[in-house]
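Try this one yourself first.
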């Protein structure tokens, strides 16, 4: 509910502003320790990324309420946004976007971690689980860049707005595609913020979609084995349908004005 989201936002904002906040039966304040504010910014940013790789990966719609709170907090407390990006890029290098190359002397285990895989006791997580987590984080990122907290003053620019999404897309299409990962990331990103990008960039966006269809999808196909076609097929269908209908559908779960009256 919109009212519940406002409560969450106000509590986080009050905490970061140095006001005393009630939590789990006690009153806490960042002024209680010299590094209190820095610690809270760090843990809060980390928590938002965890929401992306956890909650959003399983419930795509949850990207929007989480993103709108973070967007508002980022606007008032830029330090949280900076640390959020640092956590996000470490956990999901594809949000940069960046495909780390393996350097000489780097162990397989260490390289897997650089690619974003979780490694416990030399055991690497399964591909499906890895892709799900990356998907959740990219969806959260794609939601953040298009949303603003509706009760802010709106005078300044979005602290990390659509221009960053446009740049992400351009950089992504300049990278050599990876099997599995690239198709999934592009589909997630376009599903979540394609409609916002087309509103902002118009004809330039449609040229990019045409490039994806004619040039980039064949490059993804060239590195994709027959057992990895699922996501690529969905990306092809999505792009084709959007180009045919000259429209990008609004993402499922987007927050409407009526949401804020709940």
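Now uncover the answer:
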């Amino acid at each position: 509910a919109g009212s519940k989201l406002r409560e969450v936002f106000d509590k986080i904002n009050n905490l970061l502003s140095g006001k005393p906040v009630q939590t789990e039966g006690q009153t806490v304040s960042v002024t209680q320790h010299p590094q209190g504010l820095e610690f809270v910014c760090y843990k809060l940013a980390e928590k938002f990324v965890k929401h992306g790789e956890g909650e959003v990966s399983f419930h795509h719609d949850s990207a929007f309420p989480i993103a709108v709170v973070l967007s508002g907090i980022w606007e008032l407390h830029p330090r949280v946004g900076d640390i959020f990006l640092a956590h996000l890029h470490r956990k999901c290098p594809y949000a940069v976007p960046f495909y780390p190359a393996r350097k000489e002397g780097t162990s397989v285990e260490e390289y897997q971690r650089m690619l974003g895989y979780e490694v416990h006791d030399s055991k690497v997580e399964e591909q499906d689980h890895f892709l799900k987590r990356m998907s959740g984080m990219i969806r959260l990122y794609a939601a953040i860049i298009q949303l603003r907290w509706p009760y802010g003053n709106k005078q300044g620019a979005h602290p990390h707005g659509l221009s960053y999404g446009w740049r992400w897309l351009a950089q992504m299409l300049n990278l050599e595609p990876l099997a599995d990962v690239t198709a999934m990331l592009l589909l997630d990103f376009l599903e979540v913020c394609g409609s916002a990008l087309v509103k902002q960039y118009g004809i330039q966006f449609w040229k990019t979609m045409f490039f994806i269809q004619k040039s980039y999808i064949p490059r993804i196909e060239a590195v994709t084995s027959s057992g990895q076609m699922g996501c690529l097929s969905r990306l092809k269908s999505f792009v084709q349908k959007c180009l045919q209908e000259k429209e990008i559908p609004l993402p499922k779960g987007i927050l409407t004005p009526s949401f804020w009256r709940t």
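Discussion: DSSP finds ten helices and four strands in the chain. Strands lie at 21-23, 26-28, 119-120, 123-124.
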